[in-house]
From TrEMBL:
Name of the protein: Transposase, IS116/IS110/IS902 family
Region (Disordered): 1-21
Signal sequence residues: none
Coiled-coil spans in chain: 82-116
MF-aspect GO terms: DNA binding; transposase activity
UniProt entry tagged with the keyword Coiled coil: yes
Amino acid sequence: MIQRHPIEELPTVPIPNDEEEDNRRLCSEHENWTKQLTQGKNRLHSLFTQAGLTHITKKHLRTKANREISVALLPSRYQKEAERILKVLDLVEQNLKLIEKEIQEATQKKQAYVQTIMSMPGIGMITSLAIMSYMGDCKRFSSAKQAAYYAGLVPRVDISGDTVRYGRIINRGCHSIRRVIVQAAWSLVRCQHGGKVKEFYQRLYLKKRC
């Protein structure tokens, strides 16, 4: 490797500056708190299932006010655990608000860049911060294909003789970018006005079913 590097056969990986490292930590912290919020809501919902209150769905547990109304319907034997979960959820949501405020401040420092990223369908503040933190201006990528490989957004390829099959996206690359881009794509697929992304998904879905 030492012999190959001087002749530039190995790719150069730039060292992130302090600002990029701080933004990457924000992305990671936001992901961790979001997971805790989902886990807490799932745990709370399981109490309703155990109590036989199957008409209470996860949609009823999205906001603090709705959670408190729903928990009041639980039998007394489930109340204490539910109240402890409510306290945890309140704390998690408070932390998420603080982090999202920091994210907003971070994106405002490069407003022109962020506005360009957010002009793409499905891209919000969290996704734009991840792209900004990990990919920057993309000058270090020689092509769009190389950038896609870095983000882990290329399909697996199976070649057998003259047959080429494309599978799911590879399980490599930058996890933080891949996660938010996939979430953005799913949001477009599920919304009413998903545009070309939704149209492409529907064509691909029908093709895979045939």
